[in-house]
Amino acid sequence: MAILVYVEHDNSELKADTLKTVAAAQAIGGDIDLLVAGHNCQAVVDAAATVSGVNKVLVADNAAYEHQLAENVSALVLELAGDYEHILSTALSVGKNFMPRVAALLDVAQVSDIIGVESADTFVRPIYAGNAIATVQSLDTKKVITVRATAFDAVATDGSAEVVALSNATDAGISAHVSDELTESERPDLGAASVVISGGRGMQNGDNFKLLEGIADKLGAAIGASRAAVDAGFVPNDMQVGQTGKIVAPDLYIAVGISGAIQHLAGMKDSKIIVAINKDPEAPIFQVADYGLVADLFDTLPELESKL
Amino acid sequence: MKVLVPIKRVIDYNVKVRVKPDNSDVDLTNVKMAINPFCEIAVEEAVRLKEAGTATEIVAVSIGDKKCQEQLRTALALGADRAIQIETEETLDSLNIAKLLQKIVDEEQPGLVILGKQSIDSDNNQTGQMLAALTGMAQGTFASEVKVDGDKVNVTREVDGGLQTVALNLPAIVTTDLRLNEPRYAKLPDIMKAKRKPLDVKAAGDFGIDLSPRATLLKVAPPAERSAGVVVESVDELVEKLKNEAKVIS
Ligand SMILES: Cc1cc2nc3c(=O)[nH]c(=O)nc-3n(C[C@H](O)[C@H](O)[C@H](O)COP(=O)(O)OP(=O)(O)OC[C@H]3O[C@@H](n4cnc5c(N)ncnc54)[C@H](O)[C@@H]3O)c2cc1C
Ligand SMILES: Nc1ncnc2c1ncn2[C@@H]1O[C@H](COP(=O)(O)O)[C@@H](O)[C@H]1O
Description:
A: Rossmann fold, seven-stranded parallel β-sheet, five-stranded parallel β-sheet, globular, B: nine-stranded mixed β-sheet, flavoprotein (chain A), transport (chain A)
């Protein structure tokens, strides 16, 4: 039984969440191969080769995969699929985009966003914004699975897997990359940070997010936001935490001026410690907070920054 | 250009669902239902394309029991021209939904299919991508902007690091993200007019597709509850607790 794990990367860096997806693969059990599909991505390949418990790293380094377009990557994975019983990817934007395409091409269902492995064919996943947890048994011969990284502990990087270059190059020719508009940030990735501080509609405008930055600097935190804050244009979309945004589970999550709608909770309620700062004592966020402070954020944030 | 919009009837997004005591599934009796929010955005986008003269006809399609006709009527009131219900009593896997939609694509030959990125009940986020695979079309998922340009469509996508724009050959599949647009409310006269718009009903069993389930739902459990913690009185107390009790900062 063999498992193929798709490596999430941006051609220069292997995304740390991949290490957690490999942990999910280990829980399933079997020989694990990694696939790096990209272009000029040697640094990623080098990093992938060190991932512990990996048998082989397959590398498709070709212009056709530079932007990991779903049409091209799914064709590549389809060509490799014959050798594997399980195909896994992290439930990040690349995997969420191409994996269902792979599943359909293989005529199998996809099990999305698993948070637990019961056995090689039975998986646990949240549904209804995490308000219910389903255990599902796949009846397909091949399993196509995306993994919610926050639910697994990263494997070590002390391995030395064999690297195998693939000559595959499929350009489906029906889609093309036009441009990227990526948010530049010196801060840790939302998904990888051990502390996250998020602002909501209560922040009132984008400028006021500066109040979070001083605190984030002191704590080495990533900054997140509620959908309302993104919608109002305070901050870019990639900062959205929630059911339909990013899923985070840091050691410490600080929610500032966020009411705690179920869609927001879905993205952060597995954090170890939750702090809520909100002036409304009835705000639902307090029902999940370990420490709640009922106060005006405009008084609280400067004081908090000075006392850290 | 014809635009096909698949829509799903789901629990209203404001409702917190409960798990049945026997852990067999969630309990949807007497729960308020609505059109999946992402599908509502899909309908709105189609209507805007029609208003802009790009789309000529909007066909809404839903797969489900008779009750999903309510959501199809909503789509008609919002501006869809006609609707198709594919009737089934079963809850189908996304793959089977995609296979049925493929048949409708074959029949209707739309220039664009706009779906939601995700159903808020199953949280699957699969159907659009699967339909793209089955029809051999290009896909622009998690769209925050859609611009039709001749025989191509430019789709700006919400990705982990920010935004990405791709150019797709038409016909193509688009799935909507929340910021694509803000859906309008249906006006009363439009709701009345929608009652007279055509709504075709087809039986899921008539398409010659094997719709047997691909997975068994073994158990549905409530999530681990977090117990509410303590209310602290001051920033000093908060910092003290985070340092000495929770030990998450130093
Ligand atoms: C399909 C769908 C998907 C969604 N996905 C997501 C998602 O992924 N993530 C997400 O976050 N939301 C999501 N939402 C939106 C969600 O339902 C809520 O609307 C949103 O989370 C509310 O954001 P908020 O808490 O910032 O704003 P509000 O609910 O308006 O809350 C603002 C809070 O700030 C407090 N406040 C105001 N001023 C101050 C002050 N001076 N000091 C202290 N506190 C103050 C208020 O008391 C209030 O509690 C989704 C909605 C839908 C329909
Ligand atoms: N039963 C259905 N009928 C029509 N469209 C559906 C159905 N289920 C899913 N879809 C479409 O597929 C999108 C994504 O759903 P999902 O893959 O289930 O998360 C939805 O937003 C709809 O546009």
